[in-house]
Amino acid sequence: MTEDLKELYEYGYEVFGNKTKFHLWLERSCHALNNKTPISLLNTKEDVKIVRRILSRIEHGIIS
Questions:
Q1: What angle, rounded to 10 degrees, do the helices at 3-16 and 45-59 form?
Q2: The pTM is what?
Q3: Where are the alpha helices (H) located in 1-64, listed in sequence order?
Q4: What is the DSSP letter of 34?
């Protein structure tokens, strides 16, 4: 796992409060990602940044 992915997962665990909830979120389609699953966008550094921005928006209550 790259450092970017490791940091994303740690942040996701923090945002969702536990690993299970974060992993479930990764597998669900996300309106903010044009109904793609977040996990399907973890192939490039830029895509990891996009998913991280979505997590930040969730953390700050901008989207659910």
A1: 20
A2: 0.91
A3: 3-16, 19-27, 45-59
A4: T
Q: How far apart are CA 39 and CA 47, in angstroms?
A: 10
- CA–CA separation, 9 vs 15, rounded Å? 10
Q: In angstroms, what CA-CA distances link 2 with 6, 58, 60?
A: 6, 23, 26
Q: Read off the tokens for 48.
A: 């990891």
> What are the tokens at 51?
């998913």
- Both tokens of 12, joined, read 């996701």
The CA-based diameter of the chain, rounded to the nearest angstrom, is: 29
Tens of pLDDT, residue by residue, the chain (64 residues): 689 999 999 999 999 999 999 999 999 999 999 999 999 999 999 999 999 999 999 999 998 6
